[in-house]
Amino acid sequence: MTDLSVFSNLATIGGRALYSGISLLVLKQQGISSLQFQSLREISAGNVHIAENSQLCYYNTLNWTQLFRTANQKVLIRNNRGHKDCSRDRMVCDSLCADTGCWGPGPDQCLTCRYFSRGRTCVNSCHLHEGICHEKRRREKSKGMKRSMYKYQALISGSVPDPCKDFRRSPQKSLSLSGSDKGGVPSPEIREYANGSVCVECDAQCDRADEESLTCNGPGPENCIKCLHFKDGPNCVEKCPDGLQGANSFIFKYAEANNECHPCHANCTQGCIGPRLQDCIGWMDRTPLIAAGVIGGLFMVVIMVLTAAVSMRRKNIKKKRALRRFLETELVEPLTPSGTAPNQAQLRILKETELKRVKILGSGAFGTVYRGIWVPEGETVKIPVAIKILNEATGPKANVEFMDEALIMASMEHPHLVRLLGVCLSPTIQLVTQLMPHGCLLDYVHEHKDNIGSQLLLNWCVQIAKGMMYLEERRLVHRDLAARNVLVKSPNHIKITDFGLARLLDVNEKEYNADGGKVSSDRNSYKFHGH
């Protein structure tokens, strides 16, 4: 063993357990030529005794007091190799070492450096503006890499080849400055900054500047003059954050054309290529699915609308058929030999549960009229009807006679006569007829008097005359024809109501009260007694 390099990483001798007051003792080591305590910076307690080492050099160059913590510590050196013999064999400190001495040969054994230090090695200057190679920096031109990174390896024997020769490309990553154990030489492309007298390499994310320009002005990625890859805020980064865990959520950013990182849209969850919501990677991937979903949704909406329309149409058709079945006369028998239609008078006897009165429309000589709803038993259709409740004062009438007269009224089928749909034999007799939407002619004339012309009046007169002529042909006299007893289905279509109602009076009554006077009920003489 020619040195004590096994202790090269020893930085402090604490001196907690002393041998005769000595904390460092090197005695009678005849094969040792240097101590090589290159990391030792302090001897906290105890003395130093170095003696009887016939081959030991460099010991006499050291300023031992610089290592002592207290003033009462001492150094005893005797009977080692002489200074002249060491100088003759060139076993002296390197020129880059300061006057404080060294532990052995080479710039990495200096106690302190004369100029600058790079790791454990003393150097003339830091690589502020250029790497070790002074030739123009080589660049990687392959796609996806901005710069080429080079490395070289010192030989195990200690001979360091020219770093500008035979270096290999490493396109995947750059070599950080670590320095070889023997020479402490950095990668030929690494740039540094000077922290006092210490050379510190710039961060790996700093882009190497051109010659005569600084690459960085401090440690860390935030002190780069220019970034090698991307810049995220003040820091240089290898890539923009993509799913980095933040304080409240994951962070996603994208790179602009100037290689600066900017936040993605707040709703992006898988990264992005721009600031908009449409630039989100997940959004772009889902675009075909969203389009398909929208189209499918629209298709379903159209199907639902068509289904609803068809259902409503079928319901309306069913309702119209039901209304036609209940409101219109259907010829179910063949014509008689005479060619005239047979008497198909049908009088429905309705249950009180089938009728629902809504509101009063008015009252007359025979009772009160309600607007109501008729729901035939076993059906779902709701038919708007007029419900006439006869006054009890109209006199008693046998059921058979009443039904005969009601059957005659139900047999009256004419476009200008309101048809009797049915009778409800509740405690008070209820007649159910068609409901005319515009009410009676008297109220209609009062309401639209400014819009009624002679042509409309003449049309009404013709329709009333046709209805009355039909009643005359059926040998039925109305006995109370008035505007209040004419109902308006539409402005061009009116119908006569309450025909034959007076015949439901008691057979012994010769006259009945009507609005404006009394009417005689004699079949051969119809007289009106005005008041």
Describe it.
With 531 residues, the chain is of the alpha+beta class. Helix content is 17%, strand content 22%. It has five helices and 27 strands. The protein has helices at 83-88, 281-327, 399-410, 441-447, 454-473; strands at residues 12-13, 22-27, 42-43, 47-51, 75-78, 116-118, 121-123, 150-151, 168-169, 192-195, 198-201, 230-232, 235-237, 242-245, 250-255, 261-263, 348-349, 355-363, 367-374, 383-390, 420-425, 429-434, 486-490, 493-496, 511-514, 517-520, 528-530. It has a six-stranded mixed β-sheet. Strands 2-4-5 form a three-stranded parallel β-sheet, with no helix packed on it. A hairpin with a 7-residue loop joins strand 26 (517-520) and strand 27. The radius of gyration is 60 Å and the shape is rod-shaped. It starts with 11 loop residues before the first strand and ends with a strand. Mean pLDDT is 77; it is low at 133-184, 329-336, 340-344 and 505-531. One of its GO terms (molecular function) is ATP binding. Residues 173-184 have a biased composition (Low complexity). Residues 162-187 are annotated as: Disordered.
